[in-house]
């Protein structure tokens, strides 16, 4: 059997793993990275990237549809249609480009990519089943970056018409009736996209409101937009069982059971750390519930074994995994690093979008801060008006005593890009006066950020 | 104009090199005959080098702390007239002076001049790193317990690389933000750490080149502790009677007589004990497996001087009486302290007496003065309760902490020697009964 000895073994080539491998390579560490699928992980293959491609196509199609009727812009379009198989083909081409991009970056930085599913034998040894036979990899340091998988509902196992987000990104055609179980960001992003492409979408959510991780002020504009798109949202409703061929779903509402017709049933009730199938049990690491326990250096309970990304729990976000991966590579190379980030921003690509960075008003209060909060609505923003994007607002949360910015949230069209400004302010330790004193280009939506800070200081200019 | 070269003098028999410990002049200084140019140190004594002529200092060769061979040119003076260059330069194994300044080109070509590194004359060997003396004002409330310090990612990274925990760094920015400058101030010691106490970490380091007497002491101590297996023996001595006698003698002394400390009595007791145990008064030449046991008792007396530890020697103590010990000890101690002591007065001891006087402590572990085989350490006299005849009585007690070279002196010998001293000191009349 072929044996490879190396300094660093990265198990899993998702955003956490491949960044760790690139950085390790840059630092001159002899690095091997193992994954059974094309490099990029969930994010690139069946997550962030393909979903955003689909959302973009849906947005474009919806725009065209919008122009078939009366509209203020005076544009008229006749009978637009969408060939989903072509859309999927385009999406796949983007994924492929990025796959080979990641592979190229690994190569450029001299990290060796071994294709195959790896199984840890012990804390320093990994057995990989490749097309050319088994390979043993012996490493001084191991970075576990196996990611996460969609959570399955026991009574609704995946298969046939019951699909996970992965299958939802590669459908042959737009389903006539799509039932989405779970009103979290994945379900709403995909549900919105398919609704825009013409599907009759019903969202089933067990909690009393959608997007339970966001506060009500942020989710309210989304709720309104879902309604405008004709999406039916059933709150306080539990999915019970599907019929045999998956064309109907029985749900339990507060008014009793109800049956929903469905061409496809999309289950998006969350993701869980992928803890099986790669020999985690051989390592016997200390767990934190169902995820691998780590400290602020991403060290596990076993010396020389690190864990990053979704495997280590919430927030399961690609950019968190990337930051962890970069850090761990630097730690292995001997640098003194700890995960000391102030902000891990999160974006929800619904329509409108939600972006959050730092603490929400409730979280700030729970942390014992007296706060000053400034909210600026896009209805008062010139650029937003010109884009028909008046929905939403920017909200800034600061300490009352010294005006240190603790958190920034926004909801609105295209606000995802504001996440950079928000996170930078938080990482730099900005106070309200810093944001208020920074010239924000006019006319842009970002002016809402400056105005929110001014508002918190009591002297907003445009409201 | 000519050049006058001054060589490292022959400062004592058998001395082949000496250490420059101080420059009293620098290049360009005008010096008169007999002005002190430098101080060099040999085995034990420091010798000042006077200028033999009037002149201007042209060049200084060597750095403080350098061991310089006898005969090497250490200072070059520009003098009226011929100078002594022609006499010296051909033979000198010292670096030649700077050529371009020399007027007499023809004299020096044969000087097989290794190009001389021109060492910058150092005024002082002590280099204190520049540290802003005034600690910066740290206004504003300190960070609350558990509150995260506010700093940009770049500052955080720099702090991590420097091993600095940011929670201790005071931030001068808005909201107590730690700037790059704040971090620099903290690292350089210009700002105090945050958190409760107003005391600050002193990160300054004073660099002192270990030279001269201190280096000599270091070498000798290292050598003694490394080569000699020490055995240290401590016993207590009731000096009540001795102190009564001493007080009486001091109270009734003649004008010319010295005031007596306890040391002359101890020295006398040592001399008498050595008569019974002569092996203690020896030198052990471990390189040649030879033990030299001396008839004469030459007691080295450890003395603290401004420069460090010195051990002046009272020669032929077997021929001294109490007042002689006192007079000689006082003279030597003063000479050691004011630096006028000669090299001869610092060599040749056969046994050593070490005392810290009032700071004598309870126990000490003296280090052998190699190649001797015994050193007697005196601890302080204190009044302590002693059990006598069914009750506690106040007695003046003193410990002797003594070390021996265990290769030569067995524990038994050591104990017997000290017990003999103890008998003599506890019964002071016997000190004056020659047997």
What would the keywords be for this entry?
heterodimer; A: 463 residues; alpha/beta; FAD/NAD(P)-binding domain; Enolase-like, domain 1; seven-stranded mixed sheet; five-stranded parallel sheet; 24 strands; globular; B: 435 residues; alpha+beta; OB fold (Dihydrolipoamide Acetyltransferase, E2P); Dihydrolipoamide Transferase; Chloramphenicol Acetyltransferase; 3 domains; six-stranded mixed sheet; four-stranded antiparallel sheet; 8 helices; 20 strands; 26% strand; extended
Task: Describe the structure in brief.
Chain A is α/β, with parallel strands linked by helices. Chain A contains 14 helices and 24 strands.
How would you characterize the overall build of this protein?
The complex is a heterodimer of chains A (463) and B (435). With 463 residues, chain A is an alpha/beta fold. Chain A contains 14 helices and 24 strands. Chain B folds into three domains: 2-109, RNA polymerase II/Efflux pump adaptor protein, barrel-sandwich hybrid domain (OB fold (Dihydrolipoamide Acetyltransferase, E2P)); 136-199, Dihydrolipoamide Transferase (Irregular); 212-432, Chloramphenicol acetyltransferase-like domain (Chloramphenicol Acetyltransferase). Chain B is 23% helix and 26% strand. Chain B has a six-stranded mixed sheet. Chain B has a four-stranded antiparallel sheet with strand order 1-8-6-3, with no helix packed on it. A four-stranded antiparallel sheet of chain B has the order 5-4-2-7, with no helix packed on it. In chain B, helix 6 (263-276) packs across helix 7 (322-338). Chain B starts with a strand and ends in a 9-residue tail after the last helix. The chains are: A alpha/beta (463), B alpha+beta (435). The interface between A and B is medium-sized, with 16 and 14 residues.
As for the CATH topology of the largest domain in chain B, it is Chloramphenicol Acetyltransferase
CATH class of the largest domain in chain A: Alpha Beta
Q: Which band does the percent of strand residues of chain A land in?
A: 25-35%
Coarse morphology of chain B = extended
């Amino acid at each position: 059997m072929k044996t490879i000895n190396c300094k660093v073994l990265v198990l899993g080539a998702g955003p956490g793993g491949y960044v760790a491998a690139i950085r390790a390579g840059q630092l001159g560490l002899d690095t091997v990275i193992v994954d059974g699928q094309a490099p990029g992980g969930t994010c690139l293959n069946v997550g962030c990237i393909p979903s955003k491609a689909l959302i973009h196509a849906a947005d474009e199609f919806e725009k065209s549809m919008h122009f078939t009727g009366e509209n203020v812009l005076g544009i008229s379009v006749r009978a637009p249609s969408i060939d989903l198989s072509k859309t999927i083909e385009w999406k796949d081409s983007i994924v492929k480009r990025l796959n080979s991009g990641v592979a190229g970056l690994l190569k450029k930085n001299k990290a060796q990519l071994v294709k195959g599913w790896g199984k840890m034998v012990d804390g320093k040894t990994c057995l990989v089943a490749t097309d050319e036979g088994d390979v043993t990899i012996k490493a001084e340091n191991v970075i576990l970056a196996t990611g996460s998988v969609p959570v399955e509902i026991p009574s609704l196992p995946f298969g046939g018409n019951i699909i996970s987000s992965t299958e939802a990104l590669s459908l042959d055609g737009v389903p006539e009736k799509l039932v989405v179980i779970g009103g979290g960001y994945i379900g709403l992003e995909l549900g919105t996209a398919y609704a825009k492409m013409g599907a009759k979408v019903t969202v089933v959510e067990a909690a009393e409101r959608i997007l339970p991780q966001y506060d009500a002020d942020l989710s309210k504009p989304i709720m309104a937009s879902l309604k405008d798109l004709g999406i039916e949202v059933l709150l306080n409703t539990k999915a019970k069982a599907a019929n045999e061929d998956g064309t109907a779903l029985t749900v339990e509402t507060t008014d009793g059971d109800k049956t929903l017709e469905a061409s496809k049933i999309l289950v998006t009730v969350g993701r869980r750390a992928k803890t099986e199938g790669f020999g985690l049990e051989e390592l016997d690491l200390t767990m934190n519930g169902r995820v691998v326990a780590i400290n602020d250096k991403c060290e596990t309970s076993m010396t020389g074994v690190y864990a990053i990304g979704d495997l280590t729990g919430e927030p399961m976000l690609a950019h968190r995994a990337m930051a962890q991966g970069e850090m761990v590579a630097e730690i292995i190379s001997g640098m003194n690093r700890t995960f000391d980030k102030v902000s891990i921003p999160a974006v929800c690509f619904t329509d409108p979008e939600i972006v959050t960075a730092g603490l929400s008003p409730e979280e700030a209060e729970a942390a014992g801060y007296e706060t000053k909060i400034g909210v600026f609505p896009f209805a008062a923003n010139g650029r937003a008006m010109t884009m028909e994007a008046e929905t939403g607002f920017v909200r800034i949360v600061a300490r009352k005593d010294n005006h240190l910015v603790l958190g920034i949230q926004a909801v609105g069209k295209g606000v995802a890009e504001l996440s950079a400004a928000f996170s930078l302010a938080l990482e730099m330790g900005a106070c309200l006066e810093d944001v208020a004193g920074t010239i924000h280009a006019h006319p842009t939506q970002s002016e809402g950020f400056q105005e929110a800070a001014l508002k918190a200081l009591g002297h907003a200019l445009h409201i | 104009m000519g050049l006058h070269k001054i060589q490292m003098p022959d400062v004592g028999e058998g001395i082949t090199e000496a250490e420059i410990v101080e420059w009293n002049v620098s290049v360009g200084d005008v010096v008169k005959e007999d002005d002190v140019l430098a101080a060099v140190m040999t085995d034990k004594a420091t010798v000042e080098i006077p200028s033999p002529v009037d002149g201007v200092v042209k060049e200084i060769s060597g750095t403080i702390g350098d061991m310089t061979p006898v005969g090497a040119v250490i200072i070059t003076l520009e003098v009226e007239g011929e100078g002594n260059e022609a006499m010296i330069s051909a033979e000198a194994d010292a670096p030649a002076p700077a050529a371009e300044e020399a007027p007499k080109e023809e004299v020096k070509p044969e000087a097989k001049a290794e190009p001389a590194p021109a060492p910058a004359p150092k005024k002082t060997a002590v280099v204190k790193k520049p540290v802003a003396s005034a600690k910066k004002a740290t206004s504003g409330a300190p960070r609350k317990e558990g509150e995260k310090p506010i700093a940009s990612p770049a500052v955080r990274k720099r702090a991590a690389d420097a091993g600095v925990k940011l929670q201790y760094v005071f931030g001068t920015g808005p909201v107590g933000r730690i700037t790059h400058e704040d971090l620099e101030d903290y690292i350089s010691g210009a700002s105090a750490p945050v958190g409760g106490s107003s005391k600050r970490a002193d990160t300054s380091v004073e660099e002192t080149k270990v030279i001269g007497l201190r280096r000599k002491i270091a070498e000798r101590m290292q050598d003694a502790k490394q080569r000699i297996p020490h055995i240290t023996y401590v016993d207590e001595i009731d000096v009540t009677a001795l102190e009564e006698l001493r007080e009486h003698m001091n109270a009734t002394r003649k004008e010319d007589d010295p005031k007596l400390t306890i040391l002359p009595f101890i020295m006398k007791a040592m001399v008498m004990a050595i008569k019974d145990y002569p092996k203690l008064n020896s030198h052990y030449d471990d390189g040649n497996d030879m033990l030299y046991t001396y008839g004469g008792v030459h007691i080295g007396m450890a003395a603290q001087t401004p420069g460090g530890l010195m051990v002046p020697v009272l020669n032929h103590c077997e021929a001294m009486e109490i007042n002689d010990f006192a007079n000689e000890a006082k003279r030597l101690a003063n000479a050691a302290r004011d630096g006028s002591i000669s090299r001869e007065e610092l060599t040749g001891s056969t046994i050593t007496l070490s005392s810290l006087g009032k700071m004598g402590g309870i126990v000490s572990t003296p280090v052998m003065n190699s190649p001797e085989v015994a050193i007697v350490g005196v601890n302080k006299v204190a009044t302590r309760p002693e059990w006598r005849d069914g009750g506690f009585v106040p007695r003046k007690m003193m410990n002797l902490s003594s070390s021996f070279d265990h290769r030569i002196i067995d524990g038994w010998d050591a104990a017997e020697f000290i017990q003999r001293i103890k008998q003599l000191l506890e019964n002071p009349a016997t000190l004056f009964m020659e047997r």
